[in-house]
Design a protein that fits this description.
Blueprint lengths: L2 H22 L5 H17 L1 H18 L3 H7 L11 H22 L12 H27 L7 E2 L13 E2 L1 H25 L4 H6 L3 H22 L3 E4 L4 E3 L6 E5 L6 H23 L1
Antiparallel strand pairs: 1-2, 3-4, 3-5
Helix pairs in contact: 1-2, 2-3, 2-5, 3-6, 3-7, 5-6, 5-10, 6-7, 6-9, 6-10, 7-9, 9-10
């Protein structure tokens, strides 16, 4: 059977199984499972590397969401068992990459390309953007999910003053280290799958290893950008009735930081977009 037929069939099969499993385990609600199926199918059908990046982000983030649920329930006013991400959350964390992957399909078909500006600046920029996208998404999620479990008091990134756990823009050393580790895992995934699926000249193949430090910086940088946006353009307040941090003003809410301009999904989209652009430029420069 031709690759043009086999790879999309594999994509549909794998995506349907994962979406159904995620729905049963409450990682995704029904709308999230449908959206997840769509974006997973696109990624895997166009290139196994892109599917691997999405799945590495999804599986590790879903697993970390379920770690320390009792502690997170006591802090997060919007806590949902298992995460139960909806279609908005799925697309805010994978929509930009899906667009880039579709452009790559239009440009190169199902032929996976190496990061090599001498061969194609556009393809290198697009692939670098996908790497930056998931390094940022993974970094932000790891930072949030592990940072809130840290015993250290978070500090607002703009002032370095101590704030309550769950405050948007609050950072800890553990959270920042987690973001860097999450980014490096995305880079490592890209390199390992790339060696198995992509044919590169020897010198170009070795140069692909530079993806790991680039994605590490993208994970850390994306988390910092997210925190800066959260501290300034996203509202954080303390509800004296619920005794929890909330993201919207109210009569019983004491403001901690930020403007009521962006919600969490919008912050994710903006931070991902900026990190995607910066990583894309870095990859064109380095490769």
């Amino acid at each position: 059977m031709d690759k043009l037929l086999i790879q999309p069939l594999i994509a549909v099969l794998v995506s349907s199984l994962i979406a159904a499993r995620s729905y049963r385990r409450k990682s995704l609600n029904l709308s999230g499972a449908i959206a997840g199926f769509a974006v997973m199918t696109i990624h895997i059908a166009v290139g196994y590397r892109y599917g691997a990046l999405l799945l590495m982000f999804f599986f590790t983030s879903s697993k970390l969401t379920k770690v320390g649920e009792d502690k997170k329930r006591s802090v997060d006013a919007d806590f949902k068992e298992g995460g139960q991400r909806n279609w908005v959350q799925v697309l805010s964390n994978s929509g930009i990459a899906s667009i880039l992957v579709l452009i790559l399909w239009a440009k190169s078909g199902l032929q996976e390309k190496c990061l090599d500006s001498n061969d194609s600046v556009l393809v290198t920029a697009l692939v670098g953007g996908v790497i930056g996208h998931y390094a940022c998404s993974n970094g932000d999620t790891w930072s949030s999910e592990l940072g809130v479990l840290s015993d250290a008091q978070p500090r607002l990134i703009t002032t370095l003053k101590p704030v309550r756990k769950g405050t948007n823009g609050g950072v800890t050393k553990a959270g920042l280290l987690a973001a860097a580790a999450a980014g490096s895992l995305i880079g490592l995934t890209f390199v390992v799958i790339g060696f198995l699926t992509t044919k590169c000249a020897h010198d170009v193949a070795l140069k692909q290893l530079l993806v790991i430090p680039i994605s590490t910086l993208a994970g850390l940088g994306g988390s910092v950008i997210d925190s800066l946006l959260g501290a300034t353009l996203q509202f954080s307040g303390f509800c004296t009735v619920r005794n929890k941090i909330v993201g919207k003003p109210g009569p019983t809410v004491e403001q901690i930081s930020g403007l009521n301009f962006l919600d969490n999904n919008a912050v994710n989209v903006v931070s991902i977009l900026l990190t995607t652009i910066l990583t894309s430029i870095a990859c064109v420069y380095v490769f």
